[in-house]
Amino acid sequence: MSQEYTLIRDIVSGHNERMHNIKKYYPFFKLSEVSFGQYKDGRYEMLDMGYILMAVLRFFIEENNFREKLVSYKEYADFMHEVLVRDFAVSLEKEEEKELVSYIFDKIKNDGKPFSYTYFDPEDKKKKTIRTKVIENKIKDDNVMYSISADAVAFYLDTKEMKEESNITVAQLLLSKMISTRNFKGGIEVIKRINNEVGKLIHQKNEILNVISYDVFTGIRMYEEFMDHTVKWFDEEQKLFKKNKELVNKALKSCESDMGYYAVMEEIYHLESELNKVIHKHSELLSACIALQEKTDEIIVRSKLGRIRSSLDFRKMLSELIKADDADKLQYYIQPLLKLAVKKTFSLTLLDNMLTYKPDDSEDAQKVQENEYDEDFRYPDEIEEERIFDNCSVLLELLFEMLMEQESFDLISYNAYLTEKLGSKCLLSADYYSFIVHLCQKNSYDIEETLKKPDTFLEDIICRNFENHQSRFEKYKGLKFEIQYMGNMTEQNHKNDNIIRIGKYEISNLICRKIT
């Protein structure tokens, strides 16, 4: 019965966690399927997207984490030029290379959308979607700058340890990324990784002391390798510990004013506690390394003194014994060769301690806490997508209402209708202009055909509304309409109706006409 319970727990309870653990690998396998055989008639079929992705990830880690700077598109393009020439021997014209580099970048960014996949959660009995990104962007000084995501850093570190850097240093760079993106649960896992690395170094130190006690030459080689790969990074690691400590303190202060932080206060406190423990353990490692250095120097000096006489001249020794005419002195030469047993003593005080020792009959059980995921957590891009979808759905439904009531109308009438329903501020929203741009991507719309095969972003929103709000949108299923654009404008027309001014912005007029 217990075996059956364990089996069910592993299958059902652990499935959600496993699906989250594999999300960092998903973009690589998705991008590795990208073939250049269909691009430009297969002229770049020799290119390998898997290799290019790994090269780009290493480039972003170097710039974002080690140099602590964001990457501009020009810096990425210069790096890709070197990759194409050096690794694939591809020499292109400037414009042709520019187009290829842009195509690769759009694929890695997934055209600005997160990589997502759907899985079934057996505990909640419903399908869920997991999203992750490789490249993130932000506006800095009116320029778009790029950085690598925390999931991408974790994926790259899992594929191969970076031997030229301290593993603790690299893990702390990932920890900084986790704290900055408010992924505190992931930060706790990274701290555990750092703790394991520190423990491994302490074990190596003890092993070196053990080896050097009986094999000085092998022990010295191990000691030198250990010091080269450990001690020289201590200053950098201490700086990063201080930086991450400041990030955690900043997150704790934000709990008082930011409700988003307040909801994860317990996770932040847990993160701070684990970070304090690993900092203390790292300080102990530093002290242990100093003690190792002193102990090693002492053993080396003692070994040198013991090796001053490297050999024994038995003929000279025999000659000296004959001259002394004393056979008893032979014992000083023979006893070391017989490997006599070393006398050992046992302190009587230890016997008293053993007799008076009272073991604790009760043992404290260790509480095992299973990792839990906050199902309500949403990424910033998910929030933005929901806002865009909701706003476009409202604008779309009002457009359909006007088409059901009127045979045709222009953009001025539509704007007036929106102002009446939603208020004048709706025309100043960026989502309004985005909706108009997506609407103008096609000259005509047939709702029934759209539901069968959506081609554009707006048609995808139409399909999702018919699926999610069937009762509200069912009456628009047979709707057909066309978009007629006002032609090239003369200066006189420019002053009339072909240009619509909304605040300081201008937009061209158009006509929506229902097809019967």
- Helical content, roughly? 55-70%
Number of helices: 23
Oligomer state equals: single chain
The amount of beta strand, in percent, is 5-15%
**Total domain count:** 3
- Rounded average pLDDT: 77
Shape estimate: elongated
Question: What is the distance, rounded to the nearest whole angstrom, between the alpha carbons of the first and last residues?
Answer: 68 Å
Widest β-sheet, arrangement of strands: 5-10-7-6
Q: Structural class, from helix and strand content?
A: alpha+beta
Give a count of the beta strands, DSSP E runs of length 2 or more. Answer: 10
Write down the Rg.
36 Å
Low-confidence stretches: 488-495
Largest sheet: 4 strands, antiparallel
For this entry, give a set of tags.
4-stranded antiparallel sheet, 10% strand, 60% helix, 516 residues, 10 strands, 23 helices, two-stranded antiparallel ribbon, 3 domains
General description of the model:
The structure is a single chain. The protein has a four-stranded antiparallel beta sheet with strand order 5-10-7-6. A two-stranded antiparallel sheet has the order 1-2. The longest helix is centred in the middle third of the chain and has 42 residues, at 265-306. The protein is built from 23 helices and ten strands. Residues 488-495 have low confidence and may be disordered. Helix 7 (150-159) runs antiparallel to helix 8 and helix 11 (234-254) packs antiparallel against helix 13. The two termini are 68 Å apart. It is of the alpha+beta class. A hairpin with a 4-residue loop joins strand 1 (115-121) and strand 2 (126-132). The chain has helices at residues 2-13, 15-21, 26-32, 49-66, 73-88, 94-109, 150-159, 167-180, 184-212, 216-230, 234-254, 259-262, 265-306, 314-324, 331-334, 348-356, 380-405, 411-422, 430-439, 447-452, 457-468, 470-473, 491-495, and strands spanning 115-121, 126-132, 135-140, 143-148, 408-410, 444-446, 480-485, 499-502, 505-508, 510-514. The protein folds into three domains: 1-160, no CATH class; 172-306, no CATH class; 380-514, no CATH class.
